[in-house]
Automatic annotation (TrEMBL):
This is VOC domain-containing protein. PROSITE patterns: VOC. It comes from Planomonospora parontospora subsp. parontospora. Pfam families: Glyoxalase_6. Gene3D superfamilies: 2,3-Dihydroxybiphenyl 1,2-Dioxygenase, domain 1. Residues 125-239 form the VOC domain. PANTHER family: CONSERVED PROTEIN (PTHR35908:SF1), HYPOTHETICAL FUSION PROTEIN (PTHR35908).
Length: 240
């Protein structure tokens, strides 16, 4: 049995503001009553929530992970871009070429995301949240496929992608060369053991797959912080 992807966590200087931005872009619902941060609940087949966690550290450098949002037509792409800009996004240049057909934006705290043009064959069967596009090695793609029990849907030229058997966005890794990692990633995954499972047993399984144990997280004893083979942090939560 494998662990479950519970949430994509985003460190935020202003969690409520950032949650409202992404709720407006994605059309997701805000969850209340959280002890730490703000969460958005998907209204589609995404399968995991987004949690915005408070931090006093400002963003520095490009994130290793970003959303690719899909479009059904040129007009749909323009609407998504206009809605995002109206909510507080801005255009950014990360070296993209005009012929690539996507628009690169940053949210109010500088987190990058792309609005992909229509006709993208790779994301054709995905919803509005088409992919979590990651900077990462082939090895880390294999690791996450085993960790989550999600099959590989792409494995060519050291680029990999996985997807839940139940649908939702793909998670992709672009292969080497990797961007240098400076400090803690601003985005990370929260995982939970399978139903009836034990956290320490799951931690041991992930270590056997190539992860390393980093320590306890901000929640104290309710989570274990780990790192995947590329050094990206993630948390394994205590079952509730």
């Amino acid at each position: 049995m494998t662990c479950h992807l519970v949430a994509l966590c985003v460190d935020a200087y202003d969690p409520l503001r950032l949650a409202r931005f992404w709720a407006g872009v994605l059309g997701w619902e805000t969850a209340g009553g959280l002890r730490d941060g703000v969460a958005l609940l998907p209204v589609d087949d995404t399968g995991f929530r987004i949690r915005f966690l408070p931090t006093r550290e400002r963003k520095a450098g490009q994130n290793r992970m970003h959303f690719d949002l899909t479009s059904t037509s040129p007009e749909d792409q323009r609407r998504t871009v206009a809605r995002s800009l109206g909510l507080g996004a801005r255009h950014i240049d990360i070296g993209q070429r005009p012929e690539e057909g996507h628009v690169v934006l940053a949210d109010p705290e500088g987190n990058e995301f792309c609005v992909i043009g229509p006709g993208n064959a790779f994301l054709a069967d995905c919803g509005f949240v088409g992919a979590l596009a990651c900077d990462g090695s082939q090895e880390v793609g294999y690791f996450w496929s085993e960790a989550l029990g999600w099959p590989l849907v792409w494995d060519q030229d050291q680029e990999t992608a996985i997807r839940s058997p139940y649908g939702g966005p793909k998670i992709t890794w672009g292969g080497p060369p990797l961007m240098p990692k400076t400090g803690k990633n601003r985005l990370h995954f929260d995982l939970a053991p399978p139903a009836g499972g034990d956290r320490e047993t799951e931690v041991d399984r992930l270590v056997a797959l190539g992860a390393t144990r980093v320590g306890a997280g901000r929640g104290g004893t309710d989570r274990v912080v780990m790192a995947d083979p590329d050094g990206n942090e993630f948390c394994v939560l205590t079952p509730r």
